[in-house]
Specification:
alpha+beta, Heat Shock Protein 90, Ribosomal Protein S5, domain 2, Rossmann fold, nine-stranded mixed beta sheet, 21 helices, globular
Length: 655
């Protein structure tokens, strides 16, 4: 009876008063991750992309040529364009100016009518209003009809009336300045110049003929001039592929390029074969990076595979080689960028990462087939080189499959033992468990002594693992250290449909932590491991499972007082706090290796979940990550030297 009375009371308490309606932009502030992905660094930068996308849409409509992004001294952002300017006249139905409407109402904008925009990235109409909702200040300045209109907002609420004044500059367009809300972005409010410049460079390649620029008004220590760059591409994706492949050895002199329209869908594609072994295809829809692919990627693969196979059959080269060709063989050593503009894109999921429009398959397939047929017929020497590359890839794939099967036959999934060097944890819940990939047996022994045996596993790695950027696939699966990583993690690679598909459903740890020495060699080893994960376990990174441990660089000690320091600023502060000079008994120790710490120190500083600093490895731009890994781990020395010189001040390198 008591249970029945409890249920009756519960029903009586659940009434219409319990139904909450979120007005205006309250929903965005209540659940920001639903609209911008997360409230960390990625979401912070996404705010900029939403504002820039509005300007890009003006450019696609033919009304904008110049877009500038400024990172201001206080980490606010200003985006300036020379488009038509957001309308400011009065909206009769909503009883407010069009400017206020666009900035304060979800699903309000000019992108739902194809009279205004034929294609658009922000088709859901939530972009700039979300930025407004998540900012302590947003100021909009509109220049049109020889007048300047200004309106300000805070957290999505208008704080000033629409102000109008004459403008004699002749400028036209929209300027948006916003400052992200620290109540929302609790992890960081610091904008990365490199992340933003990478996106603007990408947009310049995807939208040829538009000038994009970035200015960083924050001056770092030692800088006298703000960092700035301008991006412009006259040849679009052709230049994009050349940029991505700059540090790779090319098989053909120039990229294969097409810019056409099929079935009302504009299709632009550029591709280039190189001597490498990885497939690097980047796809975009209305400037959105579709990291999960979709129908445009399927169309590209179909057109490429069918046309190349027909040519190879006719040439007789396949018959001579006597190998079975897999569709993946046609894509080994291929760098390609696919960009389509779709009037009514259907994306799978809220994150817009996979295109679902079926009509796009045939549009892209037909366009690629026609371009490839022309290229192969007109360039017989290059065509033969490409086919020979495909045959070599097929032979290597068979060797890799045999090597991979040996790994997986010995894996935990088949009931065999785990790697001998693995010290596993006792818990079997992957969501709780973490594995540390540790540089060397000495550091591995220290980590074993300091770990939480319940949830932390240790896998020591001997020296520098194989550089997968320079190795054929079968060599990778023959590498003892890499075999141990696969087996320990419990993942499998390769299916009947896709020989390189990764299956992480049986992943044994949801935190995979790279833990290396805080010196040059340690950084090199960490980069080798990250290169392996990026090329062969990208899904593990995309799911947020890969991390880098951050051991301290210094221990500052005076008597029984100890302070660990992770950078030079920490060290200086610790010295100031504990006293200066030898007479104070101050001792500064520089940790050059994990083995220099005892188990307790390693636990306290680097492994304890309550006190450690883990850096999650994310992919902001797949294309830029592809280029950087290729440049850092490839054969070409000059670009690597330039990169190191440009970023040396951010590294911890001892003299």
């Amino acid at each position: 009876m008591a249970e029945e009375e409890q249920k009756t009371t519960a029903y009586a308490d659940y009434t219409a008063e319990n139904i909450q309606v979120l007005e205006g932009l309250e929903a965005v502030r209540k659940r920001p991750s639903m609209y911008i992905g997360d409230i960390g660094s990625r979401g912070l930068h996404h705010l900029v992309y939403e504002v820039v996308d509005n300007s890009i849409d003006e450019a696609l409509a033919g009304y904008c040529k110049n877009i500038n992004v400024s990172i201001n001294e206080d980490n606010s952002i200003t985006v300036v364009d020379d488009g038509r300017g957001i309308p400011v006249d009065f909206h009769e139905k909503e009883q407010m100016s069009a400017l206020e409407l666009v900035l304060t109402k979800l699903h309000a904008g000019g992108k739902f009518s194809k009279d205004n925009y034929k294609v658009s990235g922000g088709l859901h109409g939530v972009g700039v209003s979300c930025v407004n909702a998540l900012s302590t200040l947003l100021r909009a300045e509109v220049y049109r009809d020889d007048k300047k209109y200004t309106m300000e907002f805070s957290r999505g609420i208008r704080t000033t009336e629409l102000m109008e004044q004459p403008d004699t500059t002749g400028h036209r367009g929209t300027t948006i300045t916003f400052k992200p809300d620290p109540e929302i972005f609790t992890q960081t409010l610091e904008y990365s110049y490199d992340v933003l410049s990478s996106r603007l460079r990408e947009l310049a390649y995807l939208n040829k003929g538009i000038y994009l620029s970035i200015n960083d008004k924050r001056l770092s220590e030692g800088e006298t001039e703000p960092r700035s760059e301008q991006f412009f591409s006259s040849e679009g994706l052709k230049e994009f592929v050349a940029y991505l492949d700059a540090s790779r050895e090319k098989l053909t002199e120039k990229p294969i390029y097409l810019d056409t329209e099929k079935g009302g869908t504009p299709v632009e594609v550029a591709l280039q074969y190189n001597t490498g072994y990885s497939e690097n295809i980047h796809s975009y829809v209305n400037n959105i990076n579709t990291i999960e692919g979709g129908t445009h990627l399927s169309g590209f693969r179909r057109g490429l595979t069918t046309t190349l196979k027909n040519y190879a059959d006719k040439s007789g080269l396949l018959a001579k080689a006597k190998v079975d060709i897999d569709p993946a063989d046609f894509r080994e050593g291929l760098t390609a960028v696919i960009s389509v503009k779709v009037a009514e894109p259907q994306f799978e999921g809220q994150t817009k990462t996979k295109l679902g429009n079926n009509e796009v398959v045939s549009a892209v397939s037909q366009a690629v087939s026609a371009a490839m047929e022309n290229y192969l017929e007109e360039n017989p020497k290059e065509a033969r080189i490409i086919v020979e590359k495909v045959i070599l890839a097929a032979s290597a794939r068979i060797a890799a499959r045999n090597a991979r099967e040996k790994v997986q036959r010995k894996s935990v999934l088949s009931g065999a033992g785990l790697p001998g060097k693995l010290t596993d944890c006792s818990d079997r819940n992957p969501e709780l468990c973490e594995i540390f990939l540790v540089e060397g047996d000495s550091a591995g022994g220290t980590a074993k002594g300091g770990r939480n045996k319940s949830i932390q596993a240790i896998l020591p790695l001997r020296g520098k693992i194989l550089n997968v950027e320079k190795a054929m696939e079968h060599k990778i699966f023959e590498s003892e250290e890499i075999k141990n990583i696969f087996t320990a993690l419990g993942v499998t690679i390769g299916t009947e449909e896709d020989s390189k598909a990764l299956n992480i459903s049986k992943l044994r740890y949801h935190k995979v932590v790279i833990m290396t020495d805080a010196d040059v060699d340690g950084s090199h080893i960490a980069t080798l491991i990250m290169t392996f994960f990026f090329r062969y376990m990208t899904d593990l990174i995309r799911n947020g499972y890969l991390y880098i441990a951050t051991p301290p660089l210094y221990l500052v000690k005076k008597g029984k007082q100890e302070t660990y320091c992770w950078n030079e600023d920490d060290r200086k502060r610790a010295i100031d706090d504990l006293g200066k000079g030898k007479e104070t008994g101050l001792h500064v120790q520089r940790y050059k290796g994990l083995g220099e710490m005892n188990a307790t120190q390693l636990w306290d500083t680097t492994m304890d979940p309550d006190r450690r600093m883990l850096r999650q490895v994310t992919i902001e731009s797949a294309a830029e990550a592809d280029r950087i890994f290729s440049m850092l781990m490839g054969e070409d020395v000059a670009p690597r030297r330039e990169f190191i010189e440009a970023h040396a001040k951010y590294a911890n390198i001892d003299a």
